[in-house]
# Entry
Amino acid sequence: MRLSPRMQFLLRNGFKGFLWLIIILGAYFLFKELVISHAPDEWMEKVYAKPVLVYLVYCFSEFFFGIIPPELFMIWAINKDTLAHYFMNLAFFAVVSYIMGYATFLIGRIFYHRDGFKRFRNTLLKEQWPLLKKYGLFLIIVAALTPLPWAAVSLLVGSAGYPSKRYLKYALFRLLRFAVYGYIIFQTHII
# Structure
């Protein structure tokens, strides 16, 4: 059975996403073993003493192309307090990511209506533009589930004139990513 190019794109990038999660978790455990374990109170105090700053950094990161992977914030949350607190943080991170993605989508929609952007699109993106229109749905799903920069993809899809209702519907896959990755991080820390 031959998979369609869209499904191949989705599966290939889904595999890359889980590979990145394994790399991030491996790097975290290595850092924890080699650095944090020698002076755990000092490290934890620096990070956990300023949760508002952590939340602000997260919001900034999600708006500006996912500079810091959300999984690092999930790891921060699981080490912070109780299990209930972890799941509240996980829900917060998921909702903020969804909202920030929509905010950048709306910024892209503003670009879509600008004459300067239309000229840019017609000259420099003339070959990629039909692909973006064609794969918009799959691009949203892949970015929602994988480490592709969520805000950047949302901006591009918005600038392609993708309908808001369809974007919001398919962007819900972002919440699924947080549920799955959050569960995996939870499982790796209860051992």
Notes: The chain has a mean pLDDT of 79. The chain has one domain: 5-189. Residues 5-34 form the longest helix (30 residues).
